[in-house]
Amino acid sequence: MSAHMPDAQSTEELKEKWVDKQEVLTGSDILLRSLVLEGVKCVFGYPGGAVLYIYDAMYGFKDFHHVLTRHEQGAIHAADGYARAAGEVGVCIATSGPGATNLVTGIATAYMDSTPLVIITGNVASTLIGTDAFQEADITGITMPITKHSYLVRSVDELPRIIHEAFHIANTGRKGPVLIDIPKDVSAAMTLFQPHTEPVALRGYNPRMAPNKLQVERLAEAISNAERPLILAGGGVVYSGGHEALLELVEKTGIPITTTLLGLGGFPSGHELWLGMPGMHGTFASNMSIQEADLLISIGARFDDRVTGKLNGFAPKAKIAHIDIDPAEIGKNVKTDIPIVGDVKTVLELLNKTVKRAESADEWRSQLQQWKAEKPFSYKDDYKEDEIGLKPQWVVELLNETTNGEAIVTTDVGQHQMWAAQYYKFNHPRSWITSGGLGTMGFGLPSAIGAQMAQPDRLVISVNGDGGVQMCSQELAICAINNIPVKVVILNNQVLGMVRQWQELIYDNRYSHIDLSGSPDFVKLAEAYGVKGLRASTKEEARRVWQEALDTPGPVVIDFVVEKGENVYPMVQQGKTLDQMLMGDE
């Protein structure tokens, strides 16, 4: 990529220089230097009146890279993708009023999925706050329910401390977004720069990392006694870096494992004990294993409704153990018998010291392997190589086969998201970036840009529907300008696919306002932005254009014209239990 990213050595040198040197600086200069002190290498943003002092300070500033997106929503989704791919705090900047409110969807997306972000917004001058001044919005009030914490900076002297605290809060405990709102006069005011680099101690904020050892011992004993144990692993495994400890636990105990949507990649998909993804569109083996288990160990998963189905019929035979860093999640949705509060990696490393193989589970393992073999994900495909017609599942399989599951894959939300989750086989954590909790259309493309900035040497594929891709398609400009080599895959069925599926199955084929046939020619749209555009409507074309995309060093948009009426199966309808799956052949 052509974008300049500062190296770690230069950042360390700057830290040493700035900490020792006493200077009187503007709030804007203090902000930029404080970001560098926190290790920030890339910022996504969009300027406006209330942040002009900040952007003026950026003029000629080369100690982090700033990416000018084409919409504030693009900026925050890109920062989110960067954070998830890098395992670091993502940063974005926007102006006051509409600039700040355009971030709200992205803030909620990060909050629901526990992504560490620091969001910097400008505000009108302190003397104008509360007067309904031009482009004024109470963004701290608006976002209070969807941030871990919010700051309204009242004095330039507070800035170094607030920035240091914000990064600490965002990236500890249950991670999430923190907002810093800076009035325009604060960004212009001057003071002596006194960097904050010492450890943060906040009264009332003490995330518990180490678990209660007695509870861990209870879990180890329960595993020894279980006949049908099962692990349900979620995004917390990935966020904590606990994937190696999880693999060790599974191999020591022989417990089968299912991974949630956000947990994909946290456990290698090729492992014989991996059952797939559970829930509304999960595998038969995963869902049946939950319903039949006598011990269900939830690790960094929060029992989302798309995982549990009907709550009072979820895991009816199981004792529930729940490992989570957020005590508020334990017992919130599902009654918990063995609660363990702590960092997932820390808990698993402690558990691995004493846990033994689940010897009584041999028959159980055999049963699950049988279910896994008998009812894998499947679809009917009668199209010949040169016949017009593509199954979306086949396209995802093509992506998987040609990349050996080694790519970073981002998605929007909808049918394409589920097909990507079902048919792409992830080998590594931080390879799957999707909007899980909020289900945000428009997330896929900008999050892929952020992921590619974080991992410039990895192949990044953004899988999109033809609906969601249009919500942030303007960010193709960023790919062209910065030569960000994202491969943008569009599964184009000319319809709001998941809405159409629900209207077919639940609303008696009453298709209401889902027709996307008036969408643009995506090849021409890509070319208008200076990005290569390709299209395929047969398998032969699909293989050829996808290989061309892989061989192209820059960004590419590939429009795969897929079958309009294809549905995602299995499917557990709302109000049904996990064993009441529609398998697609009914």
UniProtKB/TrEMBL annotation:
Residues 26-140 form the Thiamine pyrophosphate enzyme N-terminal TPP-binding domain. Binds 1 Mg(2+) ion per subunit. Residues 412-560 form the Thiamine pyrophosphate enzyme TPP-binding domain. The keyword NADP does not apply. Pathway: Amino-acid biosynthesis; L-isoleucine biosynthesis; L-isoleucine from 2-oxobutanoate: step 1/4; Amino-acid biosynthesis; L-valine biosynthesis; L-valine from pyruvate: step 1/4. GO terms for molecular function: acetolactate synthase activity; flavin adenine dinucleotide binding; magnesium ion binding; thiamine pyrophosphate binding. The keyword Metal-binding applies. GO terms for cellular component: acetolactate synthase complex. InterPro entries: Acetolactate_synth_lsu, AHAS_TPP, DHS-like_NAD/FAD-binding_dom, THDP-binding, Thiamin_PyroP_enz_cen_dom, Thiamin_PyroP_enz_TPP-bd_dom, TPP-bd_CS, TPP_enz. Its cofactor is Mg(2+); thiamine diphosphate. It catalyses: 2 pyruvate + H(+) = (2S)-2-acetolactate + CO2. CDD domains: TPP_AHAS, TPP_PYR_POX_like. Keywords: Amino-acid biosynthesis, Branched-chain amino acid biosynthesis, FAD, Flavoprotein, Magnesium, Metal-binding, Thiamine pyrophosphate, Transferase. Its EC number is 2.2.1.6. One of its GO terms (biological process) is L-valine biosynthetic process. PANTHER family: ACETOLACTATE SYNTHASE CATALYTIC SUBUNIT, MITOCHONDRIAL, THIAMINE PYROPHOSPHATE ENZYMES. Belongs to the TPP enzyme family. This is Acetolactate synthase. It comes from Saccharibacillus brassicae.
